[in-house]
Design a protein that fits this description.
Elements (H helix, E strand, L loop, with lengths): L2 H15 L2 E2 H8 L3 H13 L4 E3 L2 E3 L8 H6 L2 H12 L7 E4 L3 H8 L7 E5 L2 H6 L6 E5 L3 E3 L4 E3 L1 H8 L3 E6 L3 E3 L3 E4 L2 H12 L1 E7 L11 E4 L6 E4 L5 H10 L2 E4 L1
Parallel strand pairs: 4-5, 4-9, 5-6, 9-12, 12-14, 14-15
Antiparallel strand pairs: 1-3, 2-3, 7-8, 10-11, 11-13
């Protein structure tokens, strides 16, 4: 089998099974494990999968720039965000992470909701500027352009002084083995800090993020209180997520 054929097959198996185990896959094809590992390294370099110990997982599609991500699964994001907005109760203090799904959540907050929204996303702050009864606190710092959020020491210092009820986390992938992940180490650290300052962490995940992984861990599944997903996802797919701890809300 040619290298290009193996790589195509690897991507097909990842799409079908959600993971590749290098040793067993090599045995199945009758090639060395080193050959498969080399294929995985090259595919990972091209952003086509995420290598993990012993094999690989599907890579997250949420690696495009912010403008491109706004167009991805926009109707699904709107549906999930509309439902997630109902999880916020009056007078709660809520931290909204950056990201296009959470931007949709901000757009769908009820006009009668009285709450405090904290965010390090200028886009979300601007979206909420005209909300009649939501107080908005914007965290400053150095702008991370990929996600349009502030980061760095200034952001971390401000976040450390906050205690909030809910944190709506943004992630590029969530997988039973790797937990909630993202593509930037510093951004992952900021997200973990926010989670530590909030009583509950909620992740609203479109279908393309379920079963996908990025290089940097944000939180393991047992640190999530709630996972909001599409109602069409089969229970068999969601079983390992539910077993890990978070409540599953299907909408």
């Amino acid at each position: 089998m040619l290298t290009s054929e193996r790589k195509t097959l690897i991507q097909q198996v990842l799409q079908r099974d959600g993971r590749i185990v290098a040793k067993s896959f090599a045995e199945e094809l009758g090639v060395s494990e080193d050959t498969i590992r080399r294929d995985l390294r090259e595919l990972a370099k091209d952003g086509l999968l995420q290598r993990v110990h012993g094999g690989a997982l599907p890579s997250s599609p949420a690696v495009a720039d912010y403008r491109a991500r706004e167009q991805m699964a926009s109707s699904a994001k709107e549906k999930l965000a509309r439902a997630a907005a109902t999880l916020i109760k009056p007078r709660q203090i809520v931290f909204l992470d950056g990201g296009t799904t959470n931007l949709q959540l901000a757009r769908h907050l009820p006009q009668t909701l009285q709450a405090t929204i904290i965010t390090h996303s200028p886009s979300i702050a601007v979206e909420l500027a005209h909300h009649p009864s939501v107080e908005v606190e914007l965290i400053g710092g150095r702008l991370f352009k990929h996600s349009i959020v502030s980061m760095g020491a200034v952001s971390a210092e401000a976040i450390s002084g906050i205690h909030a009820d809910l944190f709506f986390l943004g992630a590029t992938g969530i997988h039973p083995e790797t937990g909630a992940t993202t593509g930037n180490r510093e951004e992952a650290a900021i997200k973990r800090l926010i989670a530590r300052q909030c009583a509950e962490t909620i992740l609203v995940a479109t279908e393309d993020k379920i079963g996908a992984a990025s290089p940097y861990l944000i939180l393991p599944l047992d640190k999530l209180a709630t996972l909001v997903v599409d109602a069409d996802l089969p229970d068999t797919l969601l079983k390992p997520y539910r077993a890990a701890g978070p409540a599953i809300v299907k909408v």
